[in-house]
Amino acid sequence: MQSGETPKYLCDDCQDYGRIYFDEVAENGKIYKMMKDCICKLEKLRQKRLEVIPPNFRHAVLKDIQPMKNIHPFQAVCIPKMKVNPFDSYFLAGKTGTGKSMLMWALYREAVMQDKRIVACTLSELLDEYKRFIHLSMNKQELIYPRLSAEDLRQNHTKFSIFFDDIDKARPTEYAMEQLFELANAIYDFQHQVVVTTNLRLTKLIEHFERADERFGGAIVRRLINNGMICEMF
After folding, report:
1. Could you give the CA distance from residue 210 to residue 223 in angstroms, rounded to a whole number?
2. 23-62 pLDDT, tens digit each
3. Between 148 and which of 22, 28, 110, 119 could a Cys-Cys bridge form, CB atoms 3.0 to 4.6 Å apart?
4. Is 207 helix (H, G, I), strand (E, B) or coil?
5. Is 193 left (phi over 0), alpha (psi -120 to 50) or beta?
6. Fold exhibited by the domain 55-233
């Protein structure tokens, strides 16, 4: 750039720094220098989060989805409810091909566009992260923390939107059910949004979890469906 030439930025508001400084006047008249993320930074984060959506479901935009009764008649009940309340909790159960994952990713997109704090994964993936953390800790190696823990959820200042795909695919060991119970309990106690998909009915999912320990099945499922909509499509 030659001397005197006006610099060119991708974002003129923050000059590509990603943050904007501004003055805020307190009640006593004192002026404080404040800082916030620029809209360009938020947009980059949204795009990164949207890339998580599998290619088969990137077309799924909640406002454009219409119920397909030929796939399952209950779509006509749950889809209008989701459009009005996209940040509620949903238990999506049904056979393969009934639209569970499509609806979950459409709800995920809504959370992304509202800049919610989001976690989306399978339960198996999260449990593997817990095991890796324990292994690294025991071997005194550099720790890699799991993307979500019950401790993260035990607070009121930030509401999470949590998406667990294929929750029944994790092997129901006692360790796995203990971890899932802690998560479900924290979600229930602090009223975070949770959306889960499964190929099992409620009763069968409870039986599946109880294969590890009869204490867990009903307790976990009750907490996951509390204050949420049950959408069973079999």
Report:
1. 15
2. 888 888 888 888 787 777 889 889 999 999 999 999 999 9
3. 119
4. helix
5. beta
6. Rossmann fold (3.40.50)
pTM, full prediction: 0.85
- For the beta carbon of residue 153, count every other beta carbon within 10 angstroms: 24
The amino acid that residue 179 corresponds to is: Q
Would the CA dihedral through 43, 51, 224, 147 be positive or negative? negative
Say how many Å lie between the first and final Cα of the chain, rounded.
Answer: 64
- What are φ and ψ of residue 5, in 5° steps? -80, 135
Beta bridge partners of residue 161, listed in sequence order:
118, 193
Kindly give the pairing relationship between strand 117-122 and strand 160-165.
parallel
Beta strand ranges found along the chain (DSSP E)? 19-25, 31-37, 89-94, 117-122, 160-165, 193-198, 228-233
Q: Domain coordinates of the chain in residue numbers?
A: 9-51, 55-233
